[in-house]
Design a protein that fits this description.
- The chain is of the alpha/beta class.
- The protein folds into two domains: about 5-150, Trna Endonuclease, Chain: A, domain 1 (3-Layer(aba) Sandwich); about 160-234, no CATH class.
- Helix content is about 45%, strand content about 15%.
- The chain has a six-stranded mixed beta sheet with strand order 1-2-3-4-5-6.
- The chain is globular and about 50 Å long.
């Protein structure tokens, strides 16, 4: 059983891997689903999940589909190799299948012929920063293109339900961005001579810095441009 620190590290690594996948499909032509079910509902094997699934919505680019399996520990990766049936649904619906892992979890010689490997992290000076981790992703083994089967109605329903959930969540996140923008605007105004910003150790400013960092994370995930006064703010 993992202790609190190990569990926290696992969660952090998982989020860094997901952020790297998000960065890979941040263009508007992509629709990305995190933890997507292979079918709608529960039971009968329909509870199989993909860690991430991306589809290119441009017919001119072949509507290509990418499925991702995230592995943050060596033992988890080895278990995956022993049970190839687990990735069968992802292979069925995708043109490319990728393992996403930190360096050292998987060796390129172990990657099955139908899969690829993306490493995220490397010698990252700040492994807790998902933006940095996403920028340090590297294709170690290129996934081969495969023809895929037509999607089932259950899989289409699963994507439709997730699209609705994403739309609702996106609305909430955009509202959060607006609130945090207002907070950052307030802080920016206090940086004028004689304002609250002249007290860099003030507790309120530290809270605002945390809010700004949260804003930057949200902006990254939503693809929203950075604040024009970001450099001044820093």
């Amino acid at each position: 059983m993992k202790n609190g620190t190990e569990a926290s590290d696992t969660v952090r690594l998982n989020e860094a891997m997901k952020d790297a996948v998000r960065a890979r499909h941040s263009a508007t032509k992509w629709e990305l689903f995190i933890e997507l079910r292979a079918s709608s509902g529960n039971g009968g094997g329909r509870e199989q999940r993909f860690d991430a699934f991306a589809i290119n919505t441009y017919p001119s680019e072949g509507l290509e589909r990418h499925a991702y399996e995230i592995k943050v520990s060596r033992s988890d990766f080895l278990r995956e190799l022993k049970h190839p049936e687990k990735r069968a649904p992802a292979l069925r619906f995708s043109n490319y299948f990728w393992f996403v892992a930190p360096p050292g979890v998987a060796d390129r010689s172990e990657i099955p012929d139908e899969c690829g490997l993306i490493e995220v992290g490397g010698a990252n000076p700040d492994p807790g920063n998902p933006l940095t981790a996403a920028d340090r992703r590297k294709v170690v083994v290129k996934a081969p293109h495969r023809e895929s089967m037509p999607p089932t109605w259950g899989f289409l329903c699963s994507m439709a339900r997730r699209s609705t959930d994403n739309e609702k969540a996106c609305g909430w996140r955009r509202q959060t961005v607006k609130v945090l923008e207002a907070v950052c605007d307030l802080w920016y105004s206090t940086k004028k001579p004689g304002g609250l910003g002249s007290q860099p150790r003030h507790r309120s400013l530290r809270k605002l810095l945390s809010a700004y960092e949260t804003l930057e994370r949200l902006r990254f995930n939503l693809g929203v441009p950075n604040l024009e006064y970001r450099e001044d703010f820093r």
